[in-house]
Records
---
Amino acid sequence: MRRPPPSLILAVVAFGVFVAADDLTVVSTMLRQIIFDLEIPLPDGLDDAAWIVNAYLIAYVVVMPFVGRLSDILGRRAVYVGALFLFLAGSIWVPFAPNLPTFIVGRVLTALGGGAMVPVGMAILGDIYEPRRRASALGALGAVDTAGWVWGPLYGALLIRYLTWRWQFYLNIPLSLVGIAAAWWALGGLPRPARRERIDWLGTAALTAALLALNVALLNSSDIQSVGSLADLSGQQSPNTLPLYILSAVCLVLFIAIERTLTRHHTGPGFALDTTPPHPHTPTSPPPLIDFRLFTRRNFTPAVLVNFLIGSTLIIAVVNVPLLINVIEFDVEQAAVTSGWLLSAMTASMAVAAYAGGRLTERWGYRPVALAGLLACAVGFSLMGSSWTAATPYQQMAWHLAILGLGFGLVIAPIGAAVINAAPEDQRGIASGLVIVLRLIGMSVGLSGLTAWGLHRFNVLRTLIELPPLDDPGFQTALIEGLTNTTVAVLAETFLVSAGLALLALLVALALRRDTFTADH
């Protein structure tokens, strides 16, 4: 079968990624109506309702390493089309769900399909584009992915206003069918694996359990997402997540032991230079899910570490900016509109910069573009942390967020290209999965860590609020003003911490080295 041109394959892959990215964020503006229609009692059912979002995020993360490796073994077309079928099944299931548990099952199905598309899509671009052209293609895919995040909440708001939340999933059905047909046709000419490997089911189970326990623990430690201010949360008791962290650590150690054993028993074609004698039982041993020799290859380790740190800072902007606006604006609906407008300044800038970053990476290499992006992140966060108060004009906030988005966007292409170019041909799927997973884990770790630190700072600073006597007529006004200013000050401090993390990522990015094919032509 004659393969379509790479640009057409990119368009087909980007279509599926856009639909999945939209589904990731669209529910944020639909939650109130979904909770009402599913008859979830409030406030008692708020923790249960949080799983509308949390279940999607967990399934989205957990599926990526396995499905990335699966595409290395079974071929990209089969796995990408299979992901679209899962997404289709979930989209059919969700609108007919009569209650919350059934609804969550459907959301998990859509998350498994949507989460699979991004790493497999990146691996497909690694297969069809020569190394010196990959950064541009990955930048375009990153721009489309980010555009889907931007479009999701707006699209959800329009559907809520003129139709119902169920139409999001009704409309996913024809879009998925179009995506399936286009992908089956366009991806038919992709190279197929030279040999069919066995799947490392034991390693997959151990890694899945580790990621599942870790993400549940981190999400339960980050209840700040569901409150209006730090004052709302300061008196709440967080659930005991220590057993989950212990379980995650045990499963991770088990996974590493399994993978190290399989690595010693298996020499894959991508590591042909390895001189380790083959184990006599190699034919009966599956290749490892993650071959740790990936981390010894040029640029791989610094690239995935940068992505982890970027994830830990990105989530702070996404969560703490709306939280700050909720504190400043007393009108809930106005706060939601303002938060959406401000974040769109960041995400729109991020989408444009992702494409530009790909083109610049082809010309200058990974390191200069990644360093420029990380420096812009540090500058954006520093401006936010040093100048944002309750009186800061929204236009000024928007400009600072646009600088931040510029930085985030510039980093996408060089980091993605560095990882994929570092991986052997038969490891591109798992490499793509790892780079996305580490960014998402970074988001969870960053949110959990900075939330805990922010709450500690709030509890310290609120004791310093100067208030008039309790019977003074101005006591209530002074209390509200003091709590507002304290909350804004603490959130500004989290932005300064994020600037420090961006500078740390910049130091890590100095280890990136230029590949020969990135030379100017």
Note: The chain has two domains: 1-196, 297-521.
---
Amino acid sequence: MSNLIQLLPDHVANQIAAGEVVQRPASVVKELLENSIDAGATSITLIAKDAGKTLLQIVDDGKGMGVTDARLCFERHATSKITKAEDLFNLHTKGFRGEALASIAAVAQLEMKTKTEEDELGTEIHIEGSEVKKQEPCVCPKGTSIAVKNLFFNIPARRNFLKSANVEMRHIIDEFQRVALAHPSIGFKLIHNGGELFHLLPSNLRQRIVAIMGGKTNEKLVPIEEETEILSIQGFVFKPSYAKRTRGEQFFFVNDRFIKNSYLHHAVAAAFEGLLHDKAIPSYFLYLQVDTKTLDINIHPTKTEIKFEDEHSIYQILRSAIKHSLGQFQVVSSLDFDSDTSLDPSYEQTKHAAKRPSIELDRNFNPFKRNEDFNPFDTETKNKNFSSFSTEKPSHSQKQAWENMYASSLEQSKHISFQPKEESLENHVEVESDLVNGSLFDDDEISGNAETFQLQRKYIVTKLKSGLVIIDQQRAHFRIKYEELLAQLKDTPSLSQQLIFPYLMEFDVKSFETLAQFKNELVLIGFGFETFSAEEVKIKGIPSYLKEHEMEALFDKLIADFEMEIPSEENEFLHSFALSVAKSVGLKNGQLLKNAEQMNLISRLFSCKEPLKTPDNKLIFQTFTADDLALKFQS
């Protein structure tokens, strides 16, 4: 029988290892940036072309390598970080597996130039698919420059699985930001296709966060600082009012390494309990320093997952530290020192038990007794005590007195205007608008009195010939806006409401790159831009159904929805875009609708192509026939 087991060639083993380490261009960025940091670099430049598919180059001013090290670093399991297994529990560096350079060289064309401070000449090496093509001395500055060209050139199947250039570039920016946030004392540059996206000077932690996330970030930050025997915590959280419903600004760093940990995220969310709107997610930049002997970071190829020895204690300390800072910086509600202190009990009063109040009754008072001077609306009668009960049946004259009183109250109620109360209600309950003047529906479209009513400010109930129908108002408006937006994107642009003062918005680099992909679609649905650049986006016109304070939420949702992938096919993209906008600007449950508005919503819903279900396939209305109702009473 022939032998079946055989050793894989080195280049095949390297390609298999590359499948774990190198998943996309951003994986190369992460590994090479971490190597530069371990080399003691104070300035690192990342150059990318075609989102890393054509070129990824890292240039640093670290300590560099000699001739022997330059050749040996591309061998599997070659590392300067550890010498024995016990070193895994005392790690203070980034790349310790010794597989990164070998894996990258197995699936790309790689060129490296490196030189130490002591050497007069550096070393230049060219490798293609794990095969060394050239190694010779060269003239170069101290440090290391590694250029990775044509990633996955020898594995076409893997290259075909890469996403679009915009998506891959956003992943590169993600990795770049994580490393730059973890090391604010190091200067970083990011250049893509000849344009400089980031130029980060060495700074402190707050300045680095503001430089990456935008100038308006500074006013949102609440500092966190805590020192214990188990761990030390430093960093910032966003004020609760700036929390978003989308993820993207949640950063945990343990010993200067970015990690993902749902358990610690829950600790942060617990500290914000009662301070956030429904489904809002707090933003944070938290740096934890933990004894390396109490954690294990070698459980995932990308080293973004960590196991703690005492997770429960870290959870409690983190939660308490954030709650303390929110209270210390008066982010949470505090005591009201402007309240009337005369209503508060004095210190002497707290020593004694409360006295039982005395009640005096006018036992001779009879409400059915005619009194010419009695006026139920006289304000002087408010101080009189009418606490009297009678078991006698009222006489005809007494009944007449009550009727006169009721008639009098009706007459006075005709002159009482309740309009201010309705206005105050409208100030608190905002109704989605399709017109510039703020009215959701056009009253001219409705004639006659419709038999509809709103149930719990969530459902609209109206009758049919065979029974009744109950409509979910939020889902109905979602369907309506979706079809209207889709028609505008395919045919004619929407009307734009011009703003008196342009609305200024700032985005970080990654968000702006995403936003730029659908600028034309924003114009078609009614947005007008005065300036549109990475420095600022100035909006001069908005869709007529949108309000200024709703724009932040709309853009946050659009960026979050298209952050990972923008559909390549036009129809699919228009569908996804209309879906996101319709969800953001649609009518919400809890909003009060007038009768005419209810009828207009019903009319527009049943004019839609698909009135039964929402674009995401949820039921919009339910019908109940007379027979269905009769079944409910068969008992």
Note: Residues 333-337, 376-395, 405-449 have pLDDT under 50 and may be disordered.
---
Amino acid sequence: MFSSVRPLFQTLHRTTLKVSDWLTQGFRIGLVLAVLAYGVGMVWFIYFADRVAIADQTVLVLDLKGALVEESPGGLRDKVLGELQGESTDSVRLRDLQMALALAEKDKRIDRVLLKLDDFKGAGLASLREAAWAIEKFKASGKPVVAWSAGYDQRQYYLAAHASQVAVHPMGTVLIEGFGRQRNYYKEALDKLGIEANLIRVGQYKSAGEPFILSQPSAQALKAEAHVYDALWTLYTEGIEQARKLPPGSVAQLIDSLPGALQAVKGDAGQLVKDWKWVDQLQTFESLRQTLIDAVGKDEDGNTFRQVGFKDYLQAQIKPVKGAHIAVIVAQGEIGDGRAPAGKIGGLSTSELIRTATEDEDVKAIVLRVNSPGGSAFGSELIRDQLRMARDKGKPVVVSMGDVAASGGYWIAMSADQVWADASTITGSIGVFAMLPTGEGLMRKLGVNTGGYRTTWLAGAYDPRKALDPRVQALVQSGVEHIYADFIGKAAQARKLEVAQVDALAQGRIWTGAQAQAHGLVDRVGNFNDAVEAARQLAGKSAGADMPLPIRYWGPKISKVQRWVQQYLMQVANHVGWGVGQSEYASFTGLPGGLSAMVEEDFIWLKALLDQAQPYAAAAHCLCQITP
């Protein structure tokens, strides 16, 4: 009986498999057709729908989301994966913000600007000052800028303060805290674990590795940071007071009076900042929307005020630069040896950009925009030397320092004809260190022993499972001292100073741009536009008809097809993205999420050093995160 039924089951099974295969194949074909249809739609959208029509009396909306950066970080793969995983990849390029305001300043269709800052994550003070300068320049045309947020932190408020009118939600406020940082010090924790940091450094102020060998800040670190923080705080408060027409010194005085002042208004923080004239009005966004409708009229749909987003506005306005120009190369982020995506610096990839710009006959000068705390000494030298070769071939080179150009970030600036820094730039930190962590104590606690045969003492001489061999320490110390001597020697030659003078200014100490200029470490204090103008003068040429040479941001060449694919994949990610939750690091460590993130940030640079192929890496890194 079962033998006669079996063929029937086999037939039914094969039939079921065929139906399943048909369904699977049909689903695949349908998915491919859907993707192709979506792609065709995206082609139409990108090439036709994005041609923005701008009517008269339009509001340019600067809805700033994410951090203000020189270059959007990560490659295409990182951005798509970020969107798919529900992680924000938003950022605002400083040059886009500046360009949008510069174009809108002369555009008769743009009536005013709305600066919306709810999701703005800020930047260093130098970048904020550059953005504020662009806002002030736009206001000088006679057009107003209105700032609004549900509540301002001090980075958001620095931009808002430069608007013509500042509004905040009635339940919001302005939180200006001041500058400073509290660092974690891990020595006692490492001692308990049986781990030795083995920091090798040159420079009494080179405090980058101190958290791993001390239980509290050194006197030198506190002295250096106080010198910089106080100068930055003065620049910040003066900027606010001048923009809001407040008495000098009033911001610090009002902060000192805060507890009693808030009690006097029965805890109404919004009313307090209005009384202090930090904001002009308490207003919901719906109320502001109606105010703008009354001022400029409704959009085509009749739902809100007539407006255009700044990214759409730029896409409609910007035209490619052709012919003679100034090449701007952005050097942002950590410095590595090889190739790096946007938002980071690769010794090979960045020097290659400099080389191609040098060889292009249309490039009349190079401006290197630096925003970097440093990193690999070798990668830094590759870039510095490539800039030297550009100068040797007759291309003027100007460096413009952004928020940070310290340690390796200063190293790469040493071959320029001129070095410009913002007054608030963090620079200097001329010093070198290496760290070789060992866990011999931890191995003892675990009861794990290590042994084996070696033909020479140098084979596996640095073994993190064992105490550091004094001979290895001597080798690394010699190497670090050699790199430091090379560093200050090149700096002395570039700055036309005696080596002893540079050594006294170096020692790993950080300076503001204004302090660095006073000590001869940079040539001029000014913004990016000042550096570009200096490059134009050095180039000594015009674009024709007495027009100044335009600038062109120099990067890897991307074809129209590649650009379309990037936009297409990002749109797909936006439409099909899903959230996968936050980092699992907190659950692994058992620490609260915020604390675990800080610990992870402290150690991530160490992982990068350990991942190198060589047994140790000498780093020209300031590990400084001094932001408003």
Note: The chain is about 45% helix and 15% strand.
---
Amino acid sequence: MARTIVRAGPPVKLPVRRAAARVTGDGCVPRTPSLHSCPMSHLHLSSRFVTQLPGDLSLDNAPRPVKGALWSKVAPTPVAAPRLVLCAPDVAALLGLTPADVEALVPVLAGNALAEGSTPFAANYGGHQFGNWAGQLGDGRAIGLGELNGYELQLKGAGPTPYSRRADGRAVLRSSIREFLCSEAMHHLGVPTTRALALVKTGEDVVRDLLYDGHPEAEPGAIVCRVAPSFLRFGTFELPAARDDVALLQKLFDFTRTQYFPELPDAEAVLHEVARRTARLVAHWQAVGFVHGVMNTDNMSMLGLTLDYGPYGWTDDFNPGWTPNTTDARERRYRYGNQPAVGMWNVERLGVALLPLMGDDEAKLEAALLEYQRAFETAAADRWAAKLGVKNDADFIGFVNELFAWLGEVETDMTLFFRGLSAVLKQAQPTRFPDALRPAFYGEPGEAHLARGLAWLSRWWHQARHAGATAAQLDAQNPKYVLRNWLAQEAIDAAHAGDESKLRALYQVVQRPFDEQPGQEHFAQKRPEWARNRPGCSSLSCSS
């Protein structure tokens, strides 16, 4: 099982492409919906996605199939009493804004006003969910506002769209806190990700059934403003391909290549690049112990960014079989150890969608899957070697898999174990199991287990010293602080009770994950026993 952390897994059989009636669309630009305008005269949004690709101009938000269009015209639904809770100053700077500007933009960030030039829209896409084709999905609670300084702004929780199905298009405070914090925590860990500009409370309640057990409750509502160069997904290509709308697929691909891959000549080259980016992304997830939880193809970014923070989590104890997603609790498709294989499966789905643009040559798709395997195994081995401070030589895979097997025998906190290696490296060759690593255990390990660990550590110490590794180099690769689910839940509980200080403190800590932060030891602790089986800590639903 542990090998899947550094191996991508074998390719899977290609499915037969679905066929449907061919449709067409136009590229008309809708007029701005009738919300009042934003008072910031220097703020002007635009949208290449809207102006260059066919859209659905109806303002009918009733759930319906949308064909021949890649987006639908929508209007955010105003809220009662918006208030800014958090702002990411460095994200504001990317957009050419100051924190004061963001405060002034709260009406826009809440969906109560529109910036000049804004054409709000919901993207139309499909996807495979838990391995099955789900048909049309689309932005059910996300509304794009347009681009600023080369980045797209998107409101999550701003009201219904034609893709909301039976939902209300809103988001609750707890899920919005988790989205904001994780977007920024991942960025500061160095993991490619969408960003979060702002978290706004709406002043309205939203009813949700957290555990899907027939007990819905009213919760505070909130909206997150997400930021990315693009929110294009694998599923954006899958939907026109499944409908056999090759003309629309071609328009989408031409737009994507021109805007984001201008140096690449064709669909095969773009597929290879997306495969590499996806492989490197998943390798990075594995190295920091992150589990996405819902790696459906509609949640996979064409730019290799971590996209859509729902039932995610960090592996508290090193367990390749763990998934944070209650919906996936039985099959565990999206478990930690299976993410590399699922990443390749998803690339394959994208490749199947692009086959009409590659002359239906399946050999080109197979070559892209091999490229994914090569890229993942190279990136994963390099990252684990860097975390250990040893050389990635011919014996490395076997050496690191011995460690994975040992870590999985008893509950061992992954983050604490790897962070503790720098303290071990500073000392002489260990002759007994190091005290610096004992806090990583959730229970009391047996002497035989400690003896096996000591034998591995002794070999590691020699290899790391021979490679010239330093404690500072190890600490730069192994974070002390990650966004553990129980920490996020503590901040959520406090915020629900009216205390946002824990939320702000946690946000400050996760911006410096590799640094020693005196006085913040609470945020570097392993999972407490009270959080072992609590919803929001051990597991989360897709509404989390």
Note: Confidence is low (pLDDT under 50) at residues 11-34.
